[in-house]
Write a structure and sequence with these properties.
Layout (H helix, E strand, L loop, with lengths): L1 E10 L3 E11 L4 E5 L6 H8 L7 E6 L2 E2 L8 H5 L2 E4 L11 H12 L3 H14 L15 H13 L5 E5 L7 H16 L3 E6 L2 H7 L2 E6 L2 E3 L6
Parallel strand pairs: 3-8, 3-9, 6-7, 7-8
Antiparallel strand pairs: 1-2, 1-4, 4-5, 9-10
Helix pairs in contact: 3-4, 3-5, 4-5, 6-7
Length: 222
């Protein structure tokens, strides 16, 4: 479970990215974090992944207060997380297979098991036929799918995605939404930060709406 209690995040210069934010996300729930650019969505995900620490309040993931974790404990927390960044963070000097296998290499998977998991992840996102392709040769949508494959290859219990449908057309956004729904259906907790109203309507999941760092009523759905 994810629990935010009275969380504030203030950056140098006095900029308040989050103000007194409290909410919970249940295990195996899919939740959208919505709001305008600069509302605090990315900061909220970074706090969940211990990339940032709260200025005040508590962020608890599966019983651990991640804001007080020692640095050496953070990699163990992230083994249960899949992170999909807005800018993908792909390695352009490595092919698709090598990008996806990286998290498994870091934790010491057997090479045969790692290869099996990588190909399963690539197949899940429709890129198995491009396992030897380099990211520069892939379209923007394919790069996004490659980033998703890397995030799920270790089969995390929780998936955090920052604006996964940004700069893609409505059809591809719907396909990506269906992909995230498929992860949720097999028991993964999914948290998606987005300003895409069509994605929110398509997924019809609970929404946590942010405005200028604070929570407002849920994003309207039809």
């Amino acid at each position: 479970m994810i629990s935010f209690t009275a969380v504030c995040k203030r950056y140098p210069g006095g900029v308040e990215a989050l103000k007194d934010v409290s909410f919970t996300v249940a295990d195996r729930e899919m939740v959208l974090v919505t709001g305008h650019s600069g509302a605090g969505k990315t900061t909220l995900l970074k706090l969940m992944a211990a990339i940032e620490r709260p200025t005040s309040g508590s962020v608890v993931i599966n019983g651990q207060n991640v804001g007080t974790l020692r640095r050496r404990a953070i990699p163990f927390l992230r083994r249960n997380l899949g992170l999909i960044f807005e800018d993908h963070k792909l390695l352009f000097d490595r092919n698709a297979f090598d990008n996806v296998v990286l998290p498994l290499n870091i934790v010491g998977y057997d090479s045969r098991e790692a290869a099996r998991r990588v190909r399963a992840a690539l197949d899940k996102v429709g890129l198995l036929h491009k396992e030897r392709a380099y990211p520069i040769t892939l379209s923007g949508g394919e790069q996004r799918r490659l980033a998703i494959a890397r995030a799920i290859v270790h089969r995390p219990a929780m998936l955090l995605a920052d604006d996964p449908t940004g700069n893609v057309d409505a059809e591809h956004a719907r396909e990506l939404g269906d992909l995230f729904r498929s992860f949720h259906q097999v028991g993964v907790t999914v948290v998606i930060a987005t300003h895409d109203a069509l994605l929110a309507q398509h997924l019809a999941s609970r929404a946590i709406a942010l405005r200028s760092g604070g929570i407002v009523p849920e994003f309207p759905r039809t």
